[in-house]
């Protein structure tokens, strides 16, 4: 067994590799063998890399061993030490100094060359520690000394000649006549070990580090002694073949991502010793079917997305004292067809059932008083939802893209519908809202393709942006008299809407307010309207006539964009400007009446893609000659008096 030497200033370190220098077979070509070992941060370490290398039958050349770079992968410095013998590389070594304050694994390469010029390259992996912490190897594992009495060790990693098949971890190991108790597995100790099929962790062990077996994808069985009290984050993550594992009774916490991606794990027993479960503990365990969480786990100690993407999950039994379903608990559990929320639950957190694509029915008890945003979002097969009467708010995106939702009851004491609450519920046809509702958020009913008739609550004062965006089947809607504000895109894309009455308190039609309302023929405006926004009636193909209210002062850009059936327009004397492309491609236009004595200065593109020669312009009788001389206006085919 090779020893590590730690002088006060310079560390001389013999590294271990999977080769055995006492029984090497000579080759015709040189062979450099990969090495692993330890160094102390910020101190020079002399590395005798040649101890397990072979120069072959031709022997070494007279040049020293070579380095492709004088800097290691992490920025350490490398210098070839010729050992004091000129023209003889066999006693060469490498002086390594870690980057300042660096802790962790560093690597570098070196090459040896025989007398015929043939070369071989190897990689050295240096574990840099924060103190001069002794380390050693038994040829299979690399150990670091831990514990106050220096009588305990942790398995740092397997060597390149490391284990395969069934792994029975040692309880003790000897080095220099000292017997050490093996008590832990360090971070990434057996990560990416693709030859291990099973693991037995004996009673001397108390902890398993983060990522300890990460992506060791052939492991099927792991047995852990109950003495283990700590299992780190992602300790068994991506062990895709793992089917059986016991959770030790000495453990109180299941760490974040502990079983992340264990796709073959179908059954797990959580012992009563467990008091807390971290985030995403069983995330993407696709074969997991039925889980019972013991009563020892309390609400505040259960993380988010614990069962996210568990596509085989059909049921989870919560502790009787639980009152909260945590955030994203069942995120994208695509085998969960129905779920009855326990009567002890009062809160369903955000995204709790998000993207449960086969969930058809959810039964929510009357005990629930709070539901988080998008709790049932993207449940594309959800057909029915019973909402408890104790709720006063439906949060943002609650039923976002629940495209099969047909039946939903709305409690009588509800006060708010959040943003996007029913966005893209494609099959929702009718919904009755109580007058207790005082606010409805943006895009609340956007893209509800089958929604046909709608009575808005009488206490509303604002129609938020996109509230009925792209409701293609909406034919009729009554806007309450108390509404004073309509926001952008409120009715854009309501292709079946034929007529609309704007209440008296509204002073502005918003940008794209009725854009793409292709069936709209009639708009009743309030007396106090002062503004019509850009694209407000763009692509309203069925609009045939329009009288701009005499309280409006500007016709903004593209207000009537591509209103191809518009034949008659009346412009009052209150208008002070008509802006670019206001009537763009209104190619059915026949008559424009404008009650302004002095022609407005307008751009030629106001009437872009319209054959003005076929349009009659009607102006005040005493202004016909002025219009016939004015730019753009003079292009009308006929100019007559009103």
Describe the structure.
With 642 residues, this protein is mostly beta strands. Among the domains are: 4-133, Immunoglobulin-like, CATH 2.60.40.10; 145-322, Ribonuclease Inhibitor (Leucine-rich repeat, LRR (right-handed beta-alpha superhelix)), CATH 3.80.10.10. Helices cover 1% and strands 26% of the residues. The protein is built from one helix and 48 strands. Strands 9, 10, 11, 13, 14, 16 and 18 form a seven-stranded mixed β-sheet that branches. β10 (141-146) and β11 (152-158) form a beta hairpin. The longest helix is centred in the C-terminal third of the chain and has 6 residues, at 624-629. The chain is elongated, with a radius of gyration of 38 Å.
Strands, helices and their partners?
Blueprint: E1 4-5, E2 11-13, E3 35-40, E4 44-47, E5 77-81, E6 93-97, E7 104-113, E8 119-129, E9 135-137, E10 141-146, E11 152-158, E12 165-168, E13 172-175, E14 178-185, E15 196-201, E16 207-208, E17 221-224, E18 230-231, E19 244-245, E20 253-254, E21 276-277, E22 290-292, E23 315-317, E24 324-325, E25 338-340, E26 347-348, E27 361-363, E28 370-371, E29 384-386, E30 393-394, E31 407-408, E32 416-417, E33 439-440, E34 453-455, E35 462-463, E36 476-478, E37 485-486, E38 499-501, E39 508-509, E40 522-524, E41 531-532, E42 545-547, E43 554-555, E44 568-571, E45 577-578, E46 591-594, E47 616-619, H1 624-629, E48 638-641
Parallel strand pairs: 2-4, 3-8, 11-14, 12-15, 14-16, 15-17, 16-18, 17-19, 20-21, 22-23, 24-26, 25-27, 26-28, 27-29, 29-31, 30-32, 32-33, 34-36, 35-37, 38-40, 39-41, 42-44, 43-45, 44-46, 46-47, 47-48
Antiparallel strand pairs: 1-2, 4-6, 5-6, 7-8, 9-10, 10-11, 13-14
